[in-house]
């Protein structure tokens, strides 16, 4: 019965899960689950579970079931996905949804199969898998079906990916299992080294988001955060500036440049000239770091621009890919 099957595009990210249907975003929440430790029962999920981090009693555990874009905790992932599918589709006994789920470029067949199985286990009748940068390219309407160079740089929470797409397929790509969480690590390490203070990951992330940048900014911002003195173990505040965060992030940013350069080196010159004309699309939460477009444009020698929907384009593209699955079939992965 056409029209009755729900078609969902799912971006199962390390940090955030996004579900799209048609042109709508049905759900956008942290990929975080609170479980009762000994029963493996889910008590909270998404933002509510994320807000519990660091504040739970022994009996409850906060789990991030996706690590570096792949499943780290299978049971928890399947439970979460099943819950979310029922939440957006209702009880799905009759019309089970069709799902297109993103996986990182370079995921192994074992990692891909786990995502496929989690989708089936979550109640889907058909599960397709799409490399995340290809989904993102579709989600930002790049003309990927034409013989032309379309470059995507995806900076996620746990994996950075760069791909050049032409004729509905990936021509050259690479991924490194590091992302925004490693940016947070770098800020934590900087504060420890420079001020002898230990700060938590969420504090480092706040510094990155509220005052951070890839390059020095005209407007210097500052933020006071609390940490614990490395020697006395007593709480102590510290004020950081935008320049501090810029300095803390330089090494991680250099890694992004290296990854993109590696991909450009593998890309045929015919496609490079298109990329120089049209620029590379920057997607993922990392695209929101102040000045990162300028930084990458300067470092790579090609124009790099931030898309309008960096956090949702992979899910939006995944939905589009369901309708295009014949044209894309060589690029989709079977579980
Ligand atoms: N304004 C901002 N500046 C810098 N980083 C940001 C900003 N907003 C979000 N981020 C970072 O973006 C990351 C999350 O991005 P995103 O939701 O695209 O990742 P994901 O898809 O869950 O992960 P992955 O693709 O690696 O599996 C987090 O590390 C977060 O700190
Ligand atoms: Mg992602």
Summarize the model shown:
This protein is α+β, with helices and mostly antiparallel strands. 38% of the residues lie in helices and 28% in strands. It is built from 10 helices and 18 strands.
Describe what this molecule looks like in 3D.
By secondary structure, the protein is of the alpha+beta class. The protein folds into two domains: 7-135 and 314-323, ATPase, nucleotide binding domain (Nucleotidyltransferase, domain 5, 2-Layer Sandwich); 145-307, ATPase, nucleotide binding domain (Nucleotidyltransferase, domain 5). The protein has helices spanning 46-52, 74-89, 109-121, 132-139, 180-195, 201-211, 242-266, 269-278, 292-300, 313-323, and strands spanning 7-12, 16-21, 24-30, 33-36, 41-45, 60-63, 66-67, 70-71, 98-103, 126-131, 150-155, 160-166, 169-176, 197-198, 222-229, 235-241, 280-283, 304-306. The strands form five sheets. The chain has a five-stranded mixed β-sheet. Strand 7 and strand 8 (70-71) form a beta hairpin. Helix 2 (74-89) packs across helix 3 and helix 5 packs across helix 6 (201-211). The radius of gyration is 20 Å and the shape is flat. It starts with 6 loop residues before the first strand and ends in a 12-residue tail after the last helix. The model has no long low-confidence stretch (mean pLDDT 96). Bound molecules: adenosine-5'-triphosphate (ATP) and magnesium ion. The site of magnesium ion has 6 residues, from loops.
């Amino acid at each position: 019965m056409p029209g009755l099957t729900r078609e969902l595009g799912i971006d199962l990210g390390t940090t955030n899960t996004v579900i799209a249907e048609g042109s709508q975003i049905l759900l956008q929440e942290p990929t975080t689950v609170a479980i009762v430790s000994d029963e493996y029962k889910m008590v909270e999920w998404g933002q509510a579970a994320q807000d519990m981090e660091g504040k739970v009693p022994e009996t409850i555990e906060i789990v991030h079931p996706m690590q570096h874009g792949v499943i780290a905790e299978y049971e928890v992932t399947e439970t979460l996905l099943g819950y979310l599918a029922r939440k957006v589709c209702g009880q799905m006994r009759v019309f089970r949804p069709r799902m297109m789920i993103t996986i990182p470029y370079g995921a192994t067949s074992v990692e891909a199969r786990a995502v496929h199985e989690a989708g089936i286990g979550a109640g889907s009748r058909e599960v397709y898998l799409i490399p995340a940068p290809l989904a993102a390219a579709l989600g930002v309407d790049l003309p990927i079906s034409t013989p032309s160079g379309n470059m995507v740089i995806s900076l996620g929470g746990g994996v950075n990916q760069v791909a050049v797409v032409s004729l509905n397929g990936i021509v050259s790509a690479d991924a490194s299992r590091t992302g925004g969480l490693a940016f947070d690590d770098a800020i934590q390490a900087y504060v420890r080294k420079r001020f002898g203070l230990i700060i938590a990951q969420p504090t480092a992330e706040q510094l990155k988001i509220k005052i951070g940048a890839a390059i020095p900014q005209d407007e210097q911002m500052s933020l006071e955060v609390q940490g614990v003195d490395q020697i006395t173990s007593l709480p102590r505040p510290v004020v950081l500036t935008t320049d501090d965060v810029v300095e803390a992030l330089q090494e991680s940013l250099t890694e992004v440049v290296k990854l993109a350069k590696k991909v450009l080196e593998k890309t045929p010159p015919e496609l490079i000239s298109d990329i120089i004309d049209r620029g590379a699309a920057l997607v993922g939460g990392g695209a929101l770091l102040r000045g990162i477009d300028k930084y990458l444009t300067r470092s790579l020698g090609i124009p790099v621009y931030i898309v309008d929907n960096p956090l949702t384009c992979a899910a939006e593209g995944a939905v589009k890919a369901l309708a295009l699955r014949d044209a894309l079939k060589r690029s989709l992965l079977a579980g």
